[in-house]
Amino acid sequence: MTKEYLLFMLINGLSEGMLLFIIASGLSLVFGVLRVINFAHGSLYMIGAFVAYSLSTLLTTGSLMSFLVLLLVVPPVIAVLGFFLEVTLFRRVYREEHLLQLLLTYALVLILDDVVRVIWGGDPRNVARPELLAGSVDILGLALPTYNVFILGVGPVVAIGLWLLLYRTRSGNIIRAAVSYPDTLGALGVNVSWVMTATFMLGCWLAGLGGVLVASLASIDLGIGMQKIIECFAVVVIGGLGSVGGALLGSLIIGTGITFFQLPFGRWALIFPYLMMAVVLIVRPWGLFGRPER
Amino acid sequence: MLLQVQGINTYYGLSHVLFDVSLEVDRGEVVVLLGRNGAGKTTTMRSIMGLTAPKEGKVLFNGRDVTGLVPYKVARLGMGFVPEDRRIFPDLTVAANLDVGHKETSGKPKQWTVERVYEFFPRLKELSKRRGGYLSGGEQQMLTIARTLMGDPDLLLLDEPSEGLAPIIVKVLGEFIDVMKKEGMTILLSEQNVKFSLKHSDRAYIVDNGHIKYQGTISDLEKDEEIKKRYLAV
User: Fold this and answer.
1) Nearest residue, CB atoms, B100 vs list A174, A183, A191
2) pLDDT at B179 over 80
């Protein structure tokens, strides 16, 4: 095993982790404000990927323009879908017990996954990469797939964007205030139910962005939603629910971990997220960046 | 009358907490709602704000029926609520806490800006970058009042502001109430601290077991030894 090969694995693992971060940060953000663990987050990501596929069939294959259109159109489409889900369903369960919330979001998984099956069928699909990102780039004498390097770059942009939004704007102050005391925020004149809807839409936008990105990374099928939501849970357990910084660290650990474990253990590497999750739950149950629940 | 509460009955689940509570606050007045722990002071405040909507009765604010209105709408009409447990957003800096309290008032010129709030509470300016979770009780009390003022309220509901504060801070709080009154602010105060309340208010209501048992001016109440003994344990 050469040094170059290890570097190659590292880049791949990190780009896998960045993709995971984009999706998991949405899940984490939504939990922070709404206090609902949205099982259907993976399904929304999958729908994003399939919508990207359908839209791409209407556009020129492999052009950069088409890819930009997908990036600009699909995440808002998923956000709008999220808007309807929040207003009609999620809003009703915020003050209910966890079991009811779990039942709702799990039922949504079953329904949405079947909707995807009905519309797109079970065949694997994928979206051609734009020519600009289709080849490979030389980094330290290694030929790395340009697209993976691209995702590796998108992750930090999303992370910085989220950080600026949450810590440098009034909207971010309001979102973070809603995490602690939604009632008090309302008494200060803020329409908290709109804050919740908007946060949910932002989470769905992130799931949709992940969907667009994955559609050109690998082939997409009915299983990707479930696979991703499980990885996302591992991420938020490791990083701490509700923490964006934690989601970043957790994603990178899981992404690179899976990639490296594949080397000696093959498909047994899939155990890695659970293993990490178990270790964190034993040592620091509230996650690396989280705080113990009040 | 700026605020009229007319015969409200409020419940927490099945338990009946307020019985036909009525009270009035005129523009520019400081009115105190006195009572023991659990008498119904906080529930009255929450009922007025819409945080715990009364089942019967009416709350009129500026002549407008606000009963059953969601709190953020009541707040936008000009009611400012300062919660008993302060509820400082712990992850937000002092400046960000104030920023959240600022609300868009439709066209009305802004009375309270960050600068003016800092003038009133210089300590908050020194602490502007500190996170809410790291403030002392007194600092938190200043901040929770300042945060509500940022919304430019016409009426300030102060729920047990002196609770748990050191005597020196209570004194500062009293001076603050006096200054606010001089500036024409209307305040409804709820308190257990009788001495503090009588010193800084114009009129008093006494609530006990969810019923209003007494109402009158401060000078009348000060003379009424029996009432004071019975309800205020003075």
Assistant:
1) A174
2) yes
Query: Coil, strand, or helix at residue B193?
Result: coil
Nearest CA among A50, A51, A70, A75 for reference residue A60 = A70
From the CB of residue B86, how many other CB atoms can be counted at a distance below 10 Å? 23
Amino acid at A56: S
Where along chain A do its domains lie? 21-222
Note the pLDDT tens digit of each residue in B116-169.
Answer: 999 999 999 999 999 999 999 999 999 999 999 999 999 999 999 999 999 999
- Residue A185 has its nearest CB partner, among B90, B99, B100, at B100
A72 Cα distance to chain centroid: 17
Q: Which fold has domain B1-78+155-161+188-234?
A: Rossmann fold (3.40.50)
Question: HSE-up of B42 (CA within 13 Å, CB side)?
Answer: 13
CA neighbor of B51 nearest in space, from B23, B27, B20, B84: B84
Mean pLDDT to the nearest integer, A175-192: 94
Contact A176 B92 (CB under 8 A): yes
Q: ipTM of this predicted complex? A: 0.92
Residue the block writes with tokens 């504060």:
B165
Query: Which residues of chain B have a CB within 8 Å of the CB of A176?
Result: 89, 91-92, 96
Write down the pLDDT at residue B84.
93
Could you give the strand order of the β-sheet that contains B203-208, starting from the edge strand earlier in sequence? B79-82, B155-159, B186-191, B30-34, B203-208, B211-217
Least CB–CB distance from B87: residue in A170, A173, A184:
A184
Q: How many CA atoms lie within 13 A of B188 on its CB side?
A: 29
User: Are A183 and B103 within 8 A, CB to CB?
Assistant: no
- Identify the pLDDT of residue B105: 59
Where are chain B's structural domains?
1-78+155-161+188-234
Among B69, B73, B87, B154, the strongest candidate for a mutation testing the A interface, having the largest count of A CBs within 10 A, is B87
How big is the CA angle at B182 (ends B180 and B184), to the nearest 5 degrees? 75
Please write the tens of the pLDDT for every residue from A193-211. 999 999 999 999 999 999 9
Q: List C-alpha distances in Å: B173 to A104, A188, B169.
A: 48, 21, 6
Q: How many CB pairs under 8 A join A and B?
A: 61
Q: Which residue of B lies nearest to A192 if distances are taken between CA atoms?
A: B72
